[in-house]
Design goal:
iron-sulfur; Alpha-D-Glucose-1,6-Bisphosphate, Chain A, domain 3; iron; 6 strands; 7 helices; alpha/beta; flat; two-stranded parallel sheet; Cys_rich_dom; Cysteine-rich domain-containing protein
């Protein structure tokens, strides 16, 4: 990474997933990697700053409801960080309906470990937790389920989750 950062000379680093944000902010510096750029931000921090300062203006709001699956890694950054996707969604006209296992109580989906056999988490326990999440998401009456997991964010209509239960 040092080689590429020295070649590219970035001023800032925008990271697209929360796990990556953790790696660049906490893990790599622990192993001695230092950066010569000004800041490291997750895309949700960047988006919220742009919405808040008016650089991004929302003109057509969505008028819908969603539930959120928080990233395990977002817990490491605390409540302020976990509030960001909710603030962004609210700014674009989306009402967030919280499920019981949200925020710091969200069950692990396993994707951060890539379901590796070497992972500290047993794959069947992760699958079981994921199925419990899906069942809980299915109980809430929303237009979509928003997943803020480590590979970025995506939106799933409830019908897509129902197929997982069949």
């Amino acid at each position: 990474l040092d080689k590429w950062f020295n070649i590219l000379k970035p001023k800032n680093l925008l990271v697209l997933c929360t796990a990556g944000t953790n790696v660049f902010k906490n893990v790599l510096p622990h192993y001695g990697l230092t950066y010569k750029f000004d800041s490291i931000k997750s895309y949700i921090q960047y988006l919220w700053e742009k919405i808040e300062n008016g650089t991004i203006q929302i003109t057509n709001k969505l008028d819908m409801t969603v539930s959120i699956q928080d990233s395990c890694y977002s817990k490491m950054f605390g409540d302020d960080y976990m509030d960001l996707p909710r603030k962004i969604l609210e700014a674009i006209g989306v009402k967030v309906i919280e499920i019981e296992a949200c925020r710091e109580n969200m069950r692990c989906c396993g994707i951060g470990g890539g379901f590796s056999m070497d992972s500290a988490y047993h794959t069947m326990k992760i699958r079981s937790a994921t199925m419990r999440n899906i069942k809980e998401f299915k109980k809430v009456k929303v237009d979509a389920h928003f997943s803020n997991i480590v590979l970025g964010s995506s939106q799933y209509p409830p019908s897509a989750l129902e197929k997982q239960l069949s």
